[in-house]
Structure formats: structure tokens, C-alpha cells
Amino acid sequence: MLSLSTLAAAGLLLLGLAPQVSADPIFVGYYPTWKAKEMKTVDLKKYTHVNIAFAAPLESGAIVLDKSFDMASAVKQIHDAGAKALLSIGGWSGSQNISYVVSNPSSGSRMMNDLFGLIEKHSLDGVDIDWEHPGRQGAPQNRYDAAHDTPNFLEYLGTLRAQIDAKFKKNRKLVTLAVATQPFYVDGSPAKDVSKFAKLVDYAHLMLYDMNGPWGSTTGPNAPLDPGHCANNKESFSAAIDAWICAGWPPGQLTAGFAFYGRAMAATLDMSQKSSCQYQDKTKEAIKGDVDDTVTPYSGMWQWKHLRGQGILTTTNTTDRAWKRYWDTTTTTPWLFNNSPNNLTYISYDDTFSILLKVLHASSRGLAGAMVWSADMDYRNELIDAQRQRQQRCHGGGGGYVTNDGPKPSSSAPAGGSSPGAVTTDGGESGGGGGSSSACTNGVLYTCDKPGVEPGYTVCLYGRPANMQCSAGTVCIAGGSSLSYGYGKGS
């Protein structure tokens, strides 16, 4: 068994074996260049790394930046907050030439030299490559090579790592990636082994969201912790983490990505009549999201700050009277529905409670921390604080602990219930949590379900018991003020 001491600090603490993996949790926030004004008011002290997004490479490899963006001012703001500043390359709409660039020596060399120049000019701490779909098209305008993108990317990263280390010997620079829910594709399937990539970069940030949306045939959660019992799409937060770890990526070099936004869709029927299932028929209509969703076709996006600021959510878990809030106990996510006349609007999103449960799961799998798209979308630090308020640690997927210093919520969240389905109340009252329907006291209930036999444990979150478990193959062991997780007798 692993013997682990109790820690009381808040956050997410994990171990890893990457070249420069920190023993402390990392919190990565994306800084959209087109939202520079909004970013000026963001408390960047909440983050350890801030990725300035995005710069895009031309076919020649030349790096193109938004001419109106004040890079020097942004880097100063980030450094003044004590965070590392990285430049993010690509993104959904800026990756159209990356497949060509990494396959062409001349273009690849030009992109690398431009990156080094920008790092020197602006005292950047590294580069984040946001090529989300090697081996697949991704955005409609993207070039791709199904057979060669992934091996070409590996070769390019090898050259980048060697040259950036040689050039910046005295002040080592970070190389990170933003990646999709499945490992990089080769010939139409996810690669089975990506361990060589992990040896060349510091972290990969998993984009664990956009799993359902207006593009699909049904409604569904933007970021389910687990697939719903009625899901036709089996993508999930937990499955994506497993996919990357199973493909050889060390968990200590992964961060769990969170969307600080949700998505609205138009249902064809009153979803409140079948609230146990979030996956229901929807129209093909692209409906308008929040006040920033001004360009047609609409995205249906609702940033957390606008869900709160526009009054749909009057607190983190209470709604305006026009809406009902539901808690899906199978996907561990909240959702909203408006069934007023001529309005069948569904909104999937994450709140402080669902984020907290995802953080607990990510830490139990040994991840290095959390990533956010994007930092400007928060409301009074509610979501980033939910990520940081809890500390748990697991070693190599085998052991860990949970401290007996439960969260201190400002408002309660009712029970979720033990059977698949949803919990709901009318607008103006609180929604749902998860676990048993009995009330409990934060910081008191921390019990192993079957001590020394199974990995499951029960904790008190938001005044209600929540069922959690550490990695497969471990057991829960009670001891003093903490719960330990080890390999059991004879291991």
C-alpha cells in the first residue's frame, strides 16, 4: 500500500514523468487575442500558464498574428500575475496549413524560426501547438493527410524540441499541445501508441468538451463525465482520459480541459416530459446563444458569464422562473430547459458542482491539472475557483488520498438520486447534486464503501453524499483524517 500524508491546500495535485512536470497542479487558461479588452479584467493569478490564442501559419510557414493585438501588453499582464505566457499556434480555424507545414522542410523551418523570433522578442515561456485533428480534416478548410499527418507531426516535434532546447539552454521553454478526445489519427483510426509524442512535449491539454452540439442529431451534454444511459454518442470526459492514457501518454503530462461555456439547441418536444434522458430529438435550426453570439449561422454558445450575467442562472445553481434546471445523474451534468410557449430551448453546460466532480475524477486518474477555454468566460472566478478548491492525489493510477476538508459552498445543491435520470425543481430553486438523497455535513462524511476491498468512497459535497472512486485496481483504506488508496493486500 502507498502511505500518503494529508494535505489541506486547495487545488489539484498530481505526479508525472514529463521533462518539466511540476509537483504542483497547473491551471492553464486560454487568452483569445480577439477578446483582449475582456481579458484585461481577468484575474490571471488564478492560472499558472496562459496560452495566447491564436497565431496561424501560412503555407510558407510564416506566422501570422492579429495586427491589432498588443502582444507586449498581454505578456506583461500574464507575467505580472506570476503565470507563464505561451503562444498558441493553430486552433480550429487557424490550422488549415499545418499538415503541409510539418511535411515540408522549408515551411517547417520557417515556422520554427518565426516562433523562436517571437519567443525572443516578447520573452515568451514557450509554444502551444493547437493542431486538434492530425490525420483528420477538422475544420472544412483544413488540409490533411490521413496516412502521414501523425508521423510527420512526431518528426516535426522531435526537431522542434531539439532546436528549442539548444537555442534556449539557459531558460528552457515549454512545448505543449492541445488535443482532441481521441489520440492522433492514422489511416482513419486513433493511434494505439502516442508515447513517443509525450517524450517530446511537456503537456497535452485534453479538450474534453464539444462532445454534443447543434451539429448532432440529438440534444446532449457538452461535456458528460460519463456517457448517459440513453446516449447515442459514447464520447465522455472519462473515456477520453482513458483513451490517451491507454495509448501510452503519461497522466502526469495531461491536463483536463473544461469549457467555460455551454450550448443551446432547439428540442422538438418538451424535454421535461422525459427528463431522465438528455439525448432527445432536436431541430436542425441553429439558435442564438448569448449576447456575444451575433454572427449567423449562430453557434448557440452560452458563456458562463452570460448565463449568470443575463439572469438565466440567478446563482450558480438556481434559475430564472422561465427556466428549469435539471441534474443528470448518469452524465453528472446540469442542463436547462425552457418550455414556455413557442420555446423548447435546451442548454447544456458545466457549473461549479459538475466541474468539482470532474476535477475529482481527473485527479484520481493522476492528471497534471486543468485547462480552460477560455479564461474570459468566467463570472467572478466562480468556475476557476471550483477547479482549485479541492485537492486529491493519485500515484501512477495506483494510489492516492482525499483530504477531509470538504468544500465550502455558498449555497446547497439537492440530491441527485441513485437511479439513472434527472433531478429538477422549478426556476428560482436549486437543482441537483449527485449521490444519496440524505443530507450530510461537509468535512464529516468521508467513508470507504468497502475498506480494503474496493476503490469506492463516499464524500460529502454541497451537503449531499457523492459516490466517487479512484483508479481501477486500487482499494480504499481509511486512516485518520484521510482516505488512502493502495493496491490492497499482497500487492
Automatic annotation (TrEMBL):
It catalyses: Random endo-hydrolysis of N-acetyl-beta-D-glucosaminide (1->4)-beta-linkages in chitin and chitodextrins. PROSITE patterns: GH18_1, GH18_2. One of its GO terms (cellular component) is extracellular region. Pfam families: Glyco_hydro_18. Residues 25-394 form the GH18 domain. GO terms for molecular function: chitin binding; endochitinase activity. Belongs to the glycosyl hydrolase 18 family. This is GH18 domain-containing protein. It comes from Coemansia javaensis.
